[in-house]
Amino acid sequence: MTGEDPGVMDYVHLRGVEIIHQIQHTFRHHVDLMQILTRVGDPRYAFLIYFPLAYCFHRPTGTRVLWIACLSEWLNGVLKWILHGERPYWWVNEMKQHDHIVNVPSLQQYSLTCETGPGSPSGHAMVTSAVLYSIGSSFIRHGLKKTRTFERVLVWVSFSIVLLAVNISRLFIATHFPHQVLAGSLTGILLAEAVKHEHTSHLSLRHYVAWSLIMVCGIVITYTGISYLGLDPLWSLGLAKKWCANPDWVHPDTTPFFAFVRDISSLIGFGVGVFLRDMPHHPMKLSIVQKLIYLGMALVLTLSIENIKTFPSSSLFYVIGFLKFTTMMIGIVFVIPKLLNKYNLKKQ
Fold first, then answer.
1. Which domain holds residue 118?
2. CA–CA distance from 229 to each of 79, 173, 237 (Å)?
């Protein structure tokens, strides 16, 4: 699918497995920490935590973070379909069934290992690097009154440490090869750098609907094109089910389809929220205390809705996912500010 020499990729994968094996040995006593770090880089937290955090304190930054999160995750899903990348936890087992590669190290699996989509590039690395780069750039531009060199260095050192920690955790749990996390990190940073010059704060509902339709068209074209070539876009799901050490670790919300649903529903929900917010209302400026209250209410909303359990085998799984993220965005952009505004007016 990628046009690369299978022998070359087998060599890259084998060297990658050796690195992963060494990382698993080095951090074998820190399994819980590694799984916490991989959760920090979970793309869903770009929507559940990082976006509300940025939006409640600085609306333009939050808006840009949402766009970055949606675009990076959407592009990541499309690239995964096109690049057809393996994942370590199933690759080692597939290779042990062949004679041309010997001495393939065994890898440990954990509860977060068995992701179902193709592996390249890493979505955790790509979305995390894009979102945190965007937040870091905005903090330097707007958050610091005087951008001293020390403060700028501190921001980028912190960014690098978090991204490195997330990437190591992805290798540790054997869900990505080194070249995949590197590709995801670089692609995410480049995308964030490109989008930071775009004005996203003044977009209206029609812009959000238009971009959502463009993303849907991109998904359909990519899926149809891959199928037309005689390839199965869902090939990785079978391997995940075949080689995952525990069937309960295979979750449908790790598929590209669910990521696409999250991206499109978030954009549409945000657009609807913007439309409702911009209708005649009483504008207000929030104090730091009110912003903290805003953030607290937003996090309670996102995490509560995220914890609503659905049945993965149900045909309504993706529909409910769409409604969940649409509701989150409308709540953060319109409902909570409306409640705060009413409370503020009563005090006056």
1. 6-347
2. 16, 33, 19
Name the nearest CA neighbour of 27 among 114, 108, 125.
108
Whether 303 is covered by a domain: the verdict is: yes
Question: How many distinct structural domains can be found in the chain?
Answer: 1
Residue 144's pLDDT is 62
The C-alpha atoms of residue 80 and residue 258 are separated, in whole angstroms, by 14
CA count, 13 A, side-chain hemisphere, 91? 26
Q: Looking at this protein, which amino acid is placed at residue 13?
A: H
Burial (CB < 10 A; 0-12, 13-18, 19+), residue 286, is: middle
* Residue of 330, 270, 276 lying closest to 67 (CA atoms): 270
Among 124, 179, 207, 251, the active-site one is 124
Please compute Rg for the chain using Cα positions: 21
pLDDT of residue 287: 80
Question: Can you give the pLDDT at residue 31?
Answer: 95
Q: What is the DSSP string of 251-316?
A: -GGGSHHHHHHHHHHHHHHHHHHHHHHTSS-------HHHHHHHHHHHHHHHHHHHT----TTSTT
The closest of 54, 44, 35, 207 to 133, measured between CA atoms, is 54
| Active-site residue flag, 176 | yes
End-to-end CA distance of the chain: 64
Catalytic residue among 21, 58, 176, 179: 176
* Spatial distance between the Cα atoms of 255 and 215, rounded to a whole number of angstroms: 16
* Domain-located, residue 292: yes
Question: Which amino acid, 245?
Answer: A
pTM for this one? Answer: 0.91
Yes or no: say if 112 and 173 are a contact pair by the CB < 8 Å rule: yes
pLDDT score for 192 = 94
The pLDDT value given to residue 149: 79
Contacts of 103 (CB under 8 A, 6+ apart): none
**Is 1 inside a domain boundary?**
no
Q: Low-confidence residues of the chain, pLDDT below 50?
A: 1-4, 282
